[in-house]
C-alpha cells in the first residue's frame, strides 16, 4: 500500500510541476491547433469545389492530418521529454526529489506512468478533434457528403496504433534526454529518425524503426484497412519494454553528480 501511495503522490507532483509547462501543453493540444487550422482552410477550399462522391474522411481529412501527425508527433514527443527532463536538472530539482523517502525506482515508474497518461490524453484529444472536424465540415458543407460515410471503426483502429507507436518513441526520447541533457540532441535525433523513416518507407526492415509507426498507420488508413495488432505493434511494445527497463536501471543507478 505504501508503494501505491508513493506512486500516487509522485504522479500528482508531476502533474503539478508541469501544469504551466508550454511543451506539455503543446504536446497535448497541438492536434487541436492543427485541426482548427485545417477546418478553417477546408471551409474555404471545399466550398470552391464540387463533390464527386469521394470519401472525404479518407482523402481529405485523413490524408492531411495523419501526414502531419506522422511528421510532428515524434518531434512533439522529443520536445516534451526534453523540457520535462530539463525541469529535473534546473536548480538541481532531482536532488531535492531524492531527499524524500521514496525509492528511485518508484520515482522512475511514476514518471513513466505520467508520460504514458499524457500520451494517452494527447492521442484521445487528437481523436476527438479528428471526429469533430468531419462533423463540423458535414454540418457546414452538407453537399460534401461527410455524413454518407461511417469511418468510426477505422479511425479508432488507426488512433490506437498511433498510441502504440508513440510509446517506444516517448520512452526512447525520455532515456535519451536524461542521458545527454541537451535539447538540440534530443530534437535532432527525433527529426533525423522521422526523416529517415519517410525516406526509407519501402525498406524491408522499416518495421524496426518505431519513428515510422504513425506514417505506417497513415498508410493503412488511406488503404482503409482496419486492424489493431500486427508485427509493427509487437515490435513497438517490445521496444517500449526494453527501453523502459534500460531507463529504470539508468535512473536508479546513475550518479547524478
TrEMBL record:
Statement: the UniProt record of this protein carries the keyword rRNA-binding: no
Pfam family, one: ABC2_membrane_4
Record flagged with keyword DNA repair: no
UniProtKB keywords: Membrane, Transmembrane, Transmembrane helix
Segments crossing the lipid bilayer: 26-44, 64-85, 94-114, 120-141, 153-176, 182-201, 235-251
Name by which UniProt lists this protein: ABC-2 transporter family protein
